[in-house]
Amino acid sequence: MCNLYAMLAAQDSTRRHFQVDPTRDYLGNAAPLPAIWPKYEAPIVRLGADGRRELVTAHWGFLTPKVSTKTGKSLKPDAWNNARDDKLTKSGLWKDSFLNRRCLVPGTSFREAKGRNPAEDFWFALIGDEARPLFAFAGLWRHGQPGIEGEEGSWITHTMVTTTPNELVQPVHPTRMPVILDPQDYETWLCGSPAEAAALLRPYPAERMRIARRGIGVLTDTGEE
Length: 225
Prior knowledge:
Largest sheet: 8 strands, mixed
Helix content: 10-25%
Pfam family, one: SRAP
Radius of gyration: 17 Å
Number of strands: 15
Shape: globular
CATH topology: hypothetical protein yedk fold
Family: Belongs to the SOS response-associated peptidase family.
GO molecular function, one term: single-stranded DNA binding
EC number: 3.4.-.-
Keywords: Covalent protein-DNA linkage, DNA damage, DNA-binding, Hydrolase, Lyase, Protease
């Protein structure tokens, strides 16, 4: 599962890449994000009420209530940052968002860890003319968190869809990798039927990716090699 990614692209480049009108960019002055953890804020591209693309900020991870088994008191909610591709129409946590609220999650790399004590970190990026080409994870979003009180209950949250790994990711994480979409598939993911969207849930070609950084305790990606 992916629980750390980076988004280093400039804001104007992000708007161009995702074909978002500047008037529909609601990020404010967005800074580069070299380490995005669950519950952190990050940009997503979603469809507005009028069907046009917009850039907004969302917290990473669908939230579910959590209660102490000892005291019965509410605890900080769990954040579900990954949605399995084979569970999207079966799990109540994901189904409505898959059918009605798909989004694009901009990123420039993602990290997986191998081993433990200590784990080695691997940052995966796409191959391209830039050091960290911009891409999109297949994502879902929702507004409001049923059963969760306080500020967190009003958050917009997002999650990213995972699938089986390709040959590059598999030696590091043998079971899952995030779904990365080609630009020509963005419109289908946002607007297509559930069957059309589901057809995009496949491993990204390994030959179009590379390991950009690796090492012990490499928990940020600044774009440097």
